[in-house]
Amino acid sequence: MAIRDYRGEAVTGATGSALDAFEQALAGFQSWRGDPARTIATAIEQAPGFVMAHVLHAYLLVCTREPASVRAAVPVYERALRLPATPRERLHLAAIAATLRDDYEGAQSILGELLAAYPRDVLALQVAHAFDYLGGDLAGLRGRVSRVLYAWSPRLPGYQSVLAMHAFALAECGEPERAEAVALEALALDSLNARAHHALAHVFEMTGRPADGLRWMGDHIDAWGGSTFVARHCWWHLALFHLQRGDIAAALSLYDQRIRTDTTPSLADLIDASALLWRLHLNNCDVGKRWSDLAADWAPRLADGFCTFSDLHAMMAFVGARDWRLAARLLSELGERQLMPSRHGGTTRLVGLPAGRALVAFGRGDFLATIDLLSHLSPVAHRLGGSHAQRDVIQLTLRAAVGCARASVAFQRLAA
Question: Which CATH class is domain 1-127?
């Protein structure tokens, strides 16, 4: 008799103990907790022919903005491809193959096909949700989870994470009240689900409730601040709440004590650091040598040529540090990348290059050029990927440039 996963789908090459390890890794991946990479390695060691274990391993590597991590998925995919597999598992492999070709839209389409046939395939749902987020596909983010909810119930493992995904999608698509209710429903099932707490952080940010955000995240720090993937990013959200309340000292303290604490920061850590320092910069806060330290960590990634969202945050660091040499190098890289017939080439043409030029113009005090460049980006800013809270940096910079331009005109009139 075929072995089936905890949601009733047939899996190839598994053993009972390997399936338990797979489900443990999957649960960690869903709730952003623990070390699913190590757990899935145990499953593969116990059952080398376990296709879905290899699939999960590959997805752990490709659901990121790190180009080296995505490249590391190639041998994992190739090993899985040689194994016998069910039609469902073959669809997963096809989605991974499309991702490795840099065809994320193709992968999203395949995962949509898979979910139409297997609506309880929570791994397919999570990966599609991640790709929707990374690519700024708001329609996909909202519709994908909504279309499979009919097949889920609290008795199915992972239901609370499906609700957390739904809550985040609702928040991003302008329904914060519903998002809050769904996130709380998820937490009633699993109070330690870090992604549900993260969804609530977005709700509080989007609804202008920083005091509620600080209170909630502070009261539940044990749920999101321990061994979770999102702990440092949630500290970033707390820093934004402090900024919303005008407490720049508290935001800067979180930068020093919670966000920039790793000697080998990940790309996600660098993005959060740039995003927070830039917002502090827009609030006329002198952050000292923090900019130059951050720019030094970004410099080795300047030529990644993989993600426009990352490019923009690298440029923030270079401009903030007033390192015009690195800023010019990145603009040169972006000028070349915009000509590439690739996903990154397209987003560079559409958003990355004009946004990069705008940041440089802002840093050099050319506020009219900043306004001209950024005012055209609002309709396409979502193509950066990320969340509204993250992409809001474009509007914040535009607003600051308008304020600086008006102040400059007023000063000139007074001087005349």
Answer: mainly alpha
Confidence category of residue 371, pLDDT binned at 50, 70, 90: very high
Reply yes or no on whether the pLDDT at 1 is more than 60: no
pLDDT tens digits for 210-252?
Answer: 999 999 999 999 999 988 989 999 999 999 999 999 999 999 9
Structure-token pair, residue 143 = 């519709």
Mean pLDDT, residues 382-386 taken together: 91
pTM over 0.70? The answer is yes
d(C-alpha 416, C-alpha 414), whole Å = 5
Digit-coded pLDDT (tens) for 12-70 = 999 999 999 999 999 999 999 989 999 999 999 999 999 999 999 999 999 999 999 99
The domain ranges of the chain are 1-127, 265-416
Cα distances from 80 to residues 44, 92, 98, 400, 409, in angstroms, run 11, 10, 15, 51, 63
